[in-house]
Amino acid sequence: MNILWYISGHGFGHATRCTFLINHILTTDSSARIEAVTLAPAHLFSDLGRDFGPACRFTLRQTECALDAGVLQSDALTIDCEKSLTTAEQWMFNDRPRFIASEIARLEQAKHAREQAGQCKSGDASYPDIILSDAAFAPLRIARTLGIPSAICTNFTWDAIYTSLWKTRSDAPLPAWIRAITQDYFCATKWLCEFGALDDDGVPELLRKHVPVATIPLFGRAAIQNPAALRARYNIPPSNKVALLTFGGHDSQRLFASKTLQFSKWTFVGAVEHPDVLYLDPKTTHIPDWMAVADVVVGKVGFGTCTEIALAGTPFFYVSRRFWIEEPALVKATSSLPGLIIEELPLDLFESGTTWFDHVQSRLAEYESLRPVQPPAELVDTHGNDVFWDQVRQLVQEPTPARHGGDDQLAVVSELVQLAGTVADGTLHPLTLTYTSSAAGPIKPILGVQASSWPKFILDPHARISLAGARFWELGRYIGTDIPDWAILGLAEANIRPHVQAAVARGEQAAECSVEALDWLADDIGPLPTGVDVIMAADVVYQDHLTDGFLFTLHSLLTANPSATAFICAEKRFNWHATDDRPRAMAFEYFAERVKRWYAPKWNIVEHNVSDEVLAAGGRIDEFAAFDGKDMILWEVTLKPGAGARR
């Protein structure tokens, strides 16, 4: 089995829990081959490379860009909400499309190589049987696009994190880019929900409704070295107790810069550069060994810390991080384990010099009689690694999910369409569509590849409208079908961004884009924008009651912007009923009748030729080789002087 495992590089926690699972899988199944893709430091995977690398069963690939934006911290205990949200939004619109495109191209090439070889040889680039992702969401979109089963392997998701950060600064609805992250998570075949999962409210509840969930019991790294031998190696007096400080690698020494850690009969250890602390190099230290040595652990909450103190049975005093919603979920899960001591150390107390450790000692004395006779590892279910591996194998054996193509939000196959060449010397020429595809190989015919007609008119050099500095307003942005209402705005906005980025990449001045809700059927559609130059509407003639709402909204926009020009592009969509004597375009007939009855007296309508032949670079697209004007209309509409609004 070939496994492609994407691992978030935000902190060390994602990598350390994944390396534990990877080691278990490779040890358990000699046929398993795993490629880990991450931006996390290589030293976290050194043991795997040493034990399984020579047989080409484990490879590490470090990406050029991060797999996600994570969060930004000003210090070990403080999350910078504003910078975190800004950076995440930029990652969504800049790095995400490039990352998805490059990974799909790489995987398509690997698949082609495997098909050419007939089988996957040891050491060759291989096509995965499954894609796993620890917290990162974009890999799940990649898996769905390619039709590969996938699983989220995490106790939290980034959309839940960003949602909580967003709510700290605004009561406004979630922006489209956060909703787009949720859509990526929906692409997973299953969520392998690990210890300390977020409570089932808000985003987690929504995810559980769309993605099957398998609960993974507790798993984690345990001690390897003998505690007594470790104490002797570091010359820790036998009578001394040990306090392990674990605040992560984010400038934790600042937390202790003004603190004196000289307490009788205590030795402090940790990755903290301080004269009173025995320094532990995180690159070479197996922290679970020190969990077993320690009499108390003081630090911040994380998946690794919580699972490791649970397996060691060591009391844990944590300093809370504001705005980090993973923390209460992990504390709740850890506190539920039998006999384990976990208690918050208030931040104001922790920052009060030496008083904080006096408090810790006092509380430890009170807890002394409550220490379990047996380590918690012997009292709770800790075979999560076995359950995890069983779930992965089941996913591979199940039917492969259908491959999804260009209609998926931000899908990268046929991502960019450029239009060029229309009219020269008054003679109509074929319009050529050039497709820029991120996937390897030639462009393949894709159902529904066709250009709307209004862009062809705009590109006509004889068109009477100037685009320089123009403000466009599109009604009824098309994003596909079977989309839940809450996701529509997010998908619409996310579909626009790749084209803006492509324009910037070509050195063009990109337009500013925004997506807003506008209810055509509302009794009061509210204030409408002014200063609009061009109004666009394509594929908006479907249902009669929506047609009435669309026409009123369009007329209201023209009334608010009397110098604007509107373009309506619609297919007539002929169909036939047993009672009809001929095929009819009933929705279009209703549309045309309403225009004639109510709006023709107020509108100037010019009908344009839409019979241009459409070709794709490299050959004709079979599904829609040409349009003819019998089945499609393109109207140019302006408001007649003195025309007023109507309902």
Describe the structure.
It contains 19 helices and 25 strands. The longest helix has 37 residues, at 81-117. With 647 residues, the chain is an alpha/beta fold. The model is unreliable at 120-125, 403-450 and 611-629 (pLDDT under 50). Helices cover 34% and strands 17% of the residues. The radius of gyration is 30 Å and the shape is elongated. It folds into three domains: 2-219 and 385-397, Rossmann fold; 227-380, Rossmann fold; 416-639, 3-Layer(aba) Sandwich (Rossmann fold), CATH 3.40.50. The N and C termini lie far apart (63 Å). The strands form six sheets. It has a seven-stranded parallel sheet, with helices on both faces. The protein has a six-stranded parallel sheet with strand order 12-11-10-13-14-15, covered by helices on one side. This is Glycosyl transferase family 28 C-terminal domain-containing protein. Pfam families: Methyltransf_16. InterPro entries: GHMP_kinase_L-arabinokinase (IPR053205), Methyltransf_16 (IPR019410), SAM-dependent_MTases_sf (IPR029063).
What would you say about this model in short?
The protein has 647 residues and is of the alpha/beta class. 34% of the residues lie in helices and 17% in strands.
